[in-house]
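Contributing new records

If you add data, match the layout below exactly. Sequence lines come first and carry their own label; structure lines follow with theirs. Keep one chain per record. Anything else will be rejected by the validation script.
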Amino acid sequence: MYQRFLKTSRLLTLAIGMSAALLGATSAQAVEFKWAAQNDILTLDPHSQNHATTNNIVGHTYEGLVRYDKNYKVEPSLATSWSNINPTTVRFNLRKNVKFNDGSAFTADDVVFSFDRIRQPQGTMQIYVAGVKEMKKVDDHTVDVILDKPNPTLFNNFTTFYIMSKSWSVKNKSEKIQDYKAKEITFASTNTNGTGPYIIKEWAPDQRVVLTANKSWWDKLQGNVTDIIYTPIKSDPTRIAALLAGNVDAVTDLPTQDVARLRNTPTLSVLDGPEVRTIFFGFDLGSDELKYAPKGKNFFKDVRVRKALSMAIDRTAIQRSIMRGMSVPASLIIAPGVNGYNADMDKTGPADVEGAKKLLADAGYPNGVEFTLDCPNNRYVNDEEVCQAVVNMWAKIGVKAKLNAINFGPFISKIQNFDTSAYLLGWGVATYDAQYSLQSLVMTRTSGPDGSFNFSKINNAKVDALIEAMKTELDKSKRDAMIKEALTITRDEVLYIPLHHQMRPWAMKKNVTMTHNSNDAPKMYYVTVN
């Protein structure tokens, strides 16, 4: 069914209804930029999938009330200013004379509509409006945001709360978010109508995304790129060959084995930087019996089994041989650069095969356990290779893990349908605050933002209480103490098994200037091609 979905999607050419004047600069002014990475976007619906590549590319045409600057400080975007009316009401003054791509005016109605839409349960973006009870239109260019309680991360969250046109959505029967996990295709999942710096002209799944500068954008580009072709290239050798041949201008997810060679290539530059993304393993901790394991009780519920699996992993060997130094071994689910990170809590020890065997035996599994491990093969750096290495390490303690490595699209749909017993996932922190990870990954799942990516069915009352408290605590020292305690419980109870934090070098032609982003979200409006 998924293959039929892709085949159908490839036939869709996305002709956006707009005047020719909106389609970018003239040929004499045009500066084209060809960019490649390993995975495709999942949808064009800005409220559907909380997926970094999708959010970044779609975020070039859709905008929020606020955005990050180059230093990750919140600055105005579709809102020009804001003020506190009272401790739980923030008034946003909206930017005037802003047009959507179809020529309609941006108003408060669009903000209120987008708020109601993003909260729909079939999407996974509710985290970005968490703690907001209501949005009220004051007038066409003023909105009041009514909070449940004071919210210390409101503005960080709002950087990824994208605004859609109410009239366009209604006209095209897209008031509802697509049901991605059910393979639904809607007008909004295959077309866009934003206010941002670029217009998405075409999306051919697994082939390309084509963008062109929005000449009616209210702001100005800080670079000079007017036309962008984004190409997802799953194969590492093919992706690097395209860069070396000059067929693309930049690659932003380099195979670790090629970084040294690219540094020594005279026609290229390598831009180094960390990424606030942690790679980890998750397990079904809620079901009485596992779906992808022999019949019997769910052994993942026993913390000794989880600890044994973690102890068997040689993270340093993975860092050295597979990641070529481009990772930081981890025991926390958040990376350096995220508020709440504590280096002393993130120390990892050497693999302990004998200790892991003893823990399994103590748990009643002297001969190990058996299960299927789901793993993407085109999303994270060396994801399939990492999974295979860990499977081999687990085999040393008698664990038989069958690797199921598949493309990220069907993988994430599978995980969202809880069709898994064990899986590898990576989590970037869009808000640069630990609450984002804890609330999404660890908190007990509800129909809203709480536990929106808790596909492990974790249910820990103490952690839930800590996260609930940190949502509204404005005293930084008190809040950081709550974060520390929640992270400690998550680590010590092995609710997930962190593997490493990714490093993310980018490579580009010498004539290209880019600004590195630690959230692995290259912004094309900063790019200059000389």
